[in-house]
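Marked as duplicate of an earlier ticket. Keeping the data here for the record.
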Amino acid sequence: MRTIRILSILLVVSMILPLASCGPKGGGTIKIGVIAPMTGDVKTFGESTKNGVQMAINEWNAKGGINGKTLEMVLGDDKNDPAEATNAATKLIKQDKVKFIIGSVSSKCSIPISVIANDNKVVMISGTSTNPKVTVADGKRKEYVFRACFIDPPQGSAMAKFALETLKIKKAAVFYDNGNDYVKGLAEFFKAAFEKGGGTVTVYEAYSKDDTDFSALLTKVMADPPDMLYIPDYYNMVNLIAKQARDKGFKGILAGGDGWDSSDLDVKATEGGYFTNHYSPDDPRPEVQNWVKAYKEKYGSVPDALATLGYDAANLLLNAIKTAGTEDTAKVKDAMQATKGFKTVSGEISFDQDGNPTNKDIAILQIKGGKQVHVTTIKP
């Protein structure tokens, strides 16, 4: 009887072992840190970024993860504040022991994060931070830091070119936040390209992030009303300035950058305005339409550029980890730098020597009838 029982046990074990050997090898998890403004003045940016990254992680996990390991998001909230961004990055690296970070959204947060990441040899990629200082400081490349988006010089120049050549704008006024690297950069690059192209900047005025009354600046604008008012800020500030400009009687065209791309943009105040962006959901490319369909099915809305670039940044990073075949960040960094022709929703990506995508197209969108409408695409 005992012999029969032992034979039965051995038979069961022999049946189980082959099945077990068919499962994924390795096991364990790979932590992917995500830093974004989940609360604060631009929280829609954070939510979109998180959604995009999570979709990429879900897709990779559904295919078996990477090297048999499951991908796990570890989220940090920077509240769109550089000090909070520093704290979030320090916690992810020192306490949570992450080796890879996606984020943040705004350049003013990504710049301090990039210093910490690079110093600790943590691979970082921002989906949306466009200021050149994110990957380069004082002319020196931060070799562990990358981005999935175009940078500010071509973005500011693209709007200047569109204003001059398509809209036939002769005079423009520019408002900018003097404490925000992203906003200052866009303002500077727009002004330089607009004036080089023959346009005149009649008013070039700064404000602070806590300002709510722009009547003094608008009085200067209305003394000699320009054809365009360029406001390259995030949607929360654009909403305030645009409404006050219209209330003040400004009839010209409003324009801005990718910071306008939010479901919370005041489309009534900005009606007829134009802004530069990283993609358009109207783009007929299969990569775009498949992405829009999948995102709408999961979240019930059309993905904005923040979600799209979060998704693209995650896929670029995860592909580099897979290509490296290891979690050794030096090797992952090298695999990322060597990326060539990688297809993403926002375009085909190869990295230049500064960790920036080369020659990405820039979409021009218009607020028309309360919706975003794709107008044209500008080659850098």
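See parent ticket for discussion. Confidence is low (pLDDT under 50) at residues 1-25.
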